[in-house]
Specification:
The chain is α+β, with helices and mostly antiparallel strands. It folds into two domains: 31 residues; 66 residues, Translation Initiation Factor IF3 (2-Layer Sandwich). It has a four-stranded mixed β-sheet with strand order 1-2-4-3, covered by helices on one side. Helix 3 runs parallel beside helix 4. The radius of gyration is 25 Å and the shape is elongated.
Length: 135
């Protein structure tokens, strides 16, 4: 330990406990990286066995926020909009489109006034034909 180190220790003493706490905080920060900050894998995403799907039949635009919360929790949502007025149904679709875009998910029309919203972790295969002329 040189004269400079002794002088610095006298002027601004470094407590070993503070140094350990600072290191622990830094390690904890490193472990709590959100899923959106992690690099995306190009491979197949494994879906856990506890994946759920929720069904909604909103009666007001305000209920769209609850659908968004479920999507953030990696749950698929089927939303039946037939109880909403046309303008509120369109607002709900616009809102959910934004949520799905932010989560890298998908949104599909699966029936008259019925949409399927899925987060990135849930894949959807196939299409539902909405034309009545096709058999």
């Amino acid at each position: 330990m040189g004269l400079k180190d002794k002088l610095m220790g006298f002027i601004a003493p470094v407590d070993d406990e503070d140094m350990e706490e600072e290191l622990e905080f830094t390690e904890e920060e490193a472990r709590t990286i959100s899923q959106y900050e992690q690099p995306k894998s190009k491979g197949v995403t494994k879906v856990s066995s506890d994946t759920k799907m929720v069904l909604f039949e909103p009666r007001s635009f305000e209920e769209a926020e609850e659908v968004g919360r479920h999507l953030k929790e990696r749950r698929a949502a089927v939303v039946n909009l037939h109880r909403l007025q046309r303008e509120y149904a369109q607002r709900t679709i616009d809102f959910l489109t934004g949520v799905v875009f932010a989560l890298d998910g998908t949104i599909q029309k699966i029936g008259h006034n019925v949409i399927l919203c899925t987060p990135r972790t849930i894949g959807v295969h196939g299409e539902i034909s909405l034309d009545q002329d096709e058999n």
